[in-house]
Amino acid sequence: DVTPWRCMDQTFVYIVTVAEGWALSHGSVAFTMAQAIWNAYAIFRLWHYARVEARHWRFIRMGIGLFANKLPVLLDGDWWLWLRFSFISVIGGALFALDPILAGWGHPLMHVLLVPGQWLLVVASR
Predict the structure, then answer these.
(1) Confidence of residue 2 (pLDDT cuts 50, 70, 90)
(2) pLDDT digits over 87-122, tens only?
(3) Which of 3, 25, 33, 102 is deepest in the core (most CB within 10 A)?
(4) How far apart are CA 14 and CA 68, in angstroms?
(5) Dist. CA 74–CA 51, nearest whole Å
(6) Contact predicate 105/99, CB 8 Å
(7) Contact at 8 Å (CB) between 13 and 107?
(8) Whole-structure pTM value
(9) The three-state (H, E, C) secondary structure of the chain, written as one string
(10) How far apart are CA 2 and CA 45, in angstroms?
(11) pLDDT for position 123
């Protein structure tokens, strides 16, 4: 789980989180910089402490970044869209956490939930 390929995969999750936050904030430089700083910190921790840090800390940081990048939707007052993003994120996180119980199917099912999540991003961009 701490191979360079896994770290690279998770690094790009953090990078996409910043890009989504930029899009959802309608290009807010301040918000994007805050997201970039948080995610740069998370990437640093990922690459430098992956072998010694408890695995769940990586996913906690990832979850914080993913929820934070949806804040512009909430600040725009679109509670319904934010609740849908949150629902998908919570279910996806639960599936990922239950991966061992689901015989390895939790992680792929979490990826399936990315489809409605991306659709919501398109809805948010209108």
Answers:
(1) confident
(2) 999 999 999 999 999 999 999 999 999 999 999 988
(3) 25
(4) 12
(5) 36
(6) yes
(7) no
(8) 0.88
(9) CCCHHHHHHHHHHHHHHHHHHHHHCCCCHHHHHHHHHHHHHHHHHHHHHCCCCCHHHHHHHHHHHHHHCCHHHHHCCCHHHHHHHHHHHHHHHHHHHCCCCCCCCHHHHHHHCHHHHHHHHHHHCC
(10) 12
(11) 85
